[in-house]
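Collaborator request, handled under Task 6.
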Amino acid sequence: MNHSKKQVVIIGGGPAGLAAAIAAKKSGCTDVLLIERDFILGGILNQCIHDGFGLHEFKEALSGPEYADRFIKEFHSLGIEVMTGTIVLSMNADRVIDVSTRGTYKRIQADAIVLGMGCRERTAGAISLPGTRPSGVFTAGSAQNFMNLQNIMVGKQVVVLGSGDIGLIMARRMTLEGAKVEAVFEILPYSSGLPRNIQQCLNDYEIPLFLKYSVIDIHGKDRITGVTVAEIGADRNPLENTKRFVPCDTLLLSVGLIPENELSRSAGVKIYPKTSGAFVDETYMTSIPGIFACGNVLHVHDLVDHVSAESYLAGRFASEYALGQCKPSKKEIPIETGKGIRYVLPQKISGEKDFVLSMRVVDPSRNQTVMVKCGENIIAKKKMVRLHPAEMIRMDIKAEKIGNATRLEVSVE
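Structure tokens returned to the collaborator:
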């Protein structure tokens, strides 16, 4: 087996990996390697041909490939080493990774590793969807790949289950390609996608959205012929008098994303149950010294601009660690969720650095204030006109505000 040593290794060549690699190189590391399992860089952005990317990062609306192209060009201009068509087979706590490229195996010892593997979609099996298993049932992302990258039309009469952003965007995409989208059904009492996508993808195309509804049966043998849907009661069971059959030849699933953390778990990285991503500090270092995480493998983002901003920081801190300039702090201040907050990130800090606090709320609300407290002492607060679980909240926290705090709590008041 071929052995080599690198200062910083980034796993994943999507928006997170590209930004982390660029930041690591600019921060002084001369020996940076990016590993990507696909044969091209860009990750999920390559199939996201709609616009709306880059409003924060570049102050203009770009398509996914355009957004990725700007990072890819900068990546190559910096002369960063890349291995495409390469799968990481294993990773351990000593930062040793084994990779395979077209049947060639290599072992790499890294001074620091940045995890940027992104996330995957929940499938019909993952949500225990009842009924037969005919063709015509796709995750929204796989349908997007077929249509935008392979020029394959997946169906003509469509039902969408779940109102995640990819599902909403694909409802519009299918309509533009001539398909009839019967409806979008969402089990929650509110949409799980961004409000702007509800307007631009559903309302503008007169596609109905049914809240508190779900698919309770799939019909069809060789190809799906329709689904039975029903309103879901407070006990999570379908209400009998609301059941109805909806004919379709295609069912798209937009029922959530799962951070791709199998490699993380194999190395013993501690996982935060509320995000299914790594437990990190303010430098995005995981529970394993020298292993950092960013992007959707850490927690699912709604905006790629926030992925890039977060990954720049992770790449910078990984570079500092590899160069011996950033070591784990012995001081740990936990950050916990309070009233109305689903999760926070980071989950612990040293109190020695400024940091960005990311969070999501449990339920939609309006005119509320997000408070960061140590006991009764207010560390930071942010007045919000609208709070929605689909929209991640970010707050810049100054280290000087932390003082002698031993525990922080984030809540909505």
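The cover message to the collaborator said: "The mean pLDDT is 95. The chain has three domains: 1-120+257-328, 123-255, 330-413. Please let us know whether this matches your experimental observations."
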